[in-house]
Specification:
This protein has 227 residues and is an alpha+beta fold. It folds into 2 domains: 177 residues, Jelly Rolls (Sandwich), CATH 2.60.120.620; 41 residues, Rabenosyn, Rab binding domain (DNA Excision Repair, Uvrb, Chain A, Irregular). The chain contains 5 helices and 17 strands. Strands 1, 2, 4, 5, 6, 10, 14 and 17 form an 8-stranded antiparallel beta sheet that branches. β12 and β13 form a beta hairpin. The two termini are 22 Å apart.
Length: 227
């Protein structure tokens, strides 16, 4: 499942994150965190994960995720990797790759299985040319270039790339999620069911039917969730 989550950050919070990371001098070559697969095709810069500005910006993004119902429903997060921040200038790119399956949380040392990848756009699309996130599956290449504050969530098993920036600067946050449901098809079914239940709640659907569907939803979680 590939899902756009609009307006994860808006107004003051978006400005706060940009105000923290844009003036920061602790940007390092993206190769510092590239694995053997990514190193030949990765050309960008990242903010040092331990920089005070990065840690402060992480807290803003994590607080937004913790209270966003669509993210919670779609990802069913068990653990979230602390968001990282990258910057693509003119000529910078990240060629086709698949994210590593397991990462170590740099703050806790805990292992995290990367079930979902997320990109939170921090620059407005008018600020740069190129820099499109492309997620490639068996049927098509899906181009993603969202408004500042919008986020895309997609399976970490996906082949994906960032096309070269030809004008301006592209700023984004990126991170991974270990879901309580590791299977993407099961997780998508749970999300669809939860979305239908929420729609029934909004429209005042039949109470008995809603109760039955809520029971089905939670019983599926009991079958599938790893907690």
């Amino acid at each position: 499942m590939m899902l756009r989550i609009p307006a994860l950050l808006t107004g003051e919070k978006l400005a706060q994150v940009r105000g923290l990371i844009e003036p920061e001098t602790g940007w390092v070559d993206g190769l510092a965190t590239a694995g053997w697969q990514g190193a030949p095709v990765k050309r960008n810069h990242q903010l040092d994960e331990q920089a005070p500005a990065a840690r402060a910006a992480q807290r803003v993004v994590l607080a937004a995720l913790e209270t966003h119902p669509t993210f919670i429903s779609a990802a069913l997060p068990r653990a979230v990797y602390p968001p990282m921040f990258n910057r693509y200038g003119v000529g910078e790119t990240f060629g086709a790759h698949v994210d590593g399956a397991v990462r170590l949380n740099p703050q806790t040392g805990a292992q995290l299985r990367t079930d979902l990848s997320a990109t939170l756009f921090l620059s407005d699309p008018s600020d740069y040319d190129g820099g499109e996130l492309q997620v490639i599956d068996s049927f098509a290449t899906h181009g993603v270039k969202l408004a500042a504050g919008d986020m895309v969530l997609y399976p970490a098993t996906s082949l994906h790339q960032v096309t070269p920036v030809t004008r301006g600067t592209r700023l984004a946050a990126f991170f991974w999620v270990q879901s309580m449901i590791r299977d993407d098809a099961q997780r998508e079914l749970a999300f669809d069911l939860d979305s239908a239940i929420q729609r029934l709640n909004e429209t005042g659907g039949d109470d008995a039917a809603r109760t039955a569907l809520v029971g089905c939803y939670h019983n599926l979680l009991r079958m599938w969730a790893q907690v």
